TrEMBL record:
It is found in: Cell membrane. InterPro entries: ABC_perm_TupB-like, MetI-like, MetI-like_sf. Keywords: Membrane, Transmembrane, Transmembrane helix. Residues 26-222 form the ABC transmembrane type-1 domain. It comes from the Bacteria. CDD domains: TM_PBP2. PANTHER family: PERMEASE COMPONENT OF TUNGSTATE ABC TRANSPORTER. This is ABC transporter permease. Gene3D superfamilies: MetI-like. It is a multi-pass membrane protein.
Length: 235
């Protein structure tokens, strides 16, 4: 028990003193996850809007595929990207394997279906409310989708935050394509796994505390955005 107590105090000390190694890992984690979420939004928002407001052949199978992709096993995604990015793979000449770029790509593959599926649901729900209005105005599908996304912008923020939570918690795919290289591709989740296996509980606990704080912050922001959206809808 004494060892665990000492480890906890040492972990708090690392956080409070802004230990350089700790901050480097946290900074890279935020950079990778932030870039992955941004890339996912660039793809997921238009795709989700098209699925939510569009009516085109193959829409339903594509919607089913997007929803199913929300449950993609991270290690399978990591393995697939590893094969693509390895020297013998088709993308090998790009030299992305074991770089932050590969980790961003892995997280984006996992987060994009979440953003797209949530966006599609939000847009589809709003589309039902605005159907008669759009019919009288004769708006195109593209204009309708843009209008619905603007009207549901607060609700769409929940998709972004949900994607951010998924990205920050990812470990399986990023450790495969990133390699968990110190000061190069080591992020919070992979560092926690490594340091725990080595028995270095101080750093693992410090990173765990920061990751937990970020998770709580994201969930609090989600609840706040939902409450704001409800107030605006009622008002």
């Amino acid at each position: 028990m004494q060892d665990f107590t000492t480890a906890f105090f040492a972990a708090f000390d690392l956080v409070l003193t802004l230990d350089p190694d700790l901050m480097q890992i946290v900074g890279l984690s935020l950079l990778v996850s932030g870039a992955a979420v941004a890339l996912s939004c660039l793809i997921g928002f238009p795709l989700g809007a098209a699925l939510g407001a569009g009516r085109f052949p193959g829409r339903l199978p594509l919607l089913v595929l997007v929803n199913a992709a929300m449950g993609l096993p991270p290690v399978v995604v990591g393995l697939t990207l590893y094969l693509l990015l390895s020297r013998a793979g088709p993308l090998g000449p790009l030299g992305l394997l074991y770089t932050p770029a590969a980790m961003i790509l892995a997280q984006a593959v996992l987060v994009t279906p979440i953003v797209a599926a949530l966006t599609a649901q939000i847009v589809a729900d709003l589309s039902e409310e605005y159907r008669d209005l759009f019919a009288t105005m004769g708006m195109s599908r593209t204009a309708q989708a843009a209008t619905l996304m603007w009207d549901g912008r607060f609700a769409l923020t929940t998709a972004v935050l949900a994607g951010a939570g998924r990205a920050l918690a990812e470990v399986g795919a990023v450790i495969i394509v990133g390699g968990n290289i110190d000061h190069v591709t080591r992020v919070m989740t992979t560092a926690i796994a490594l340091e725990t296996s080595r028995g270095a509980l101080e750093l693992a606990l410090a990173l765990g505390l920061i990751l937990l704080a970020l998770s709580l912050g994201i969930n609090a922001a989600l609840m706040g955005m939902r409450a704001t959206a409800r107030r605006l809808a009622d008002g």
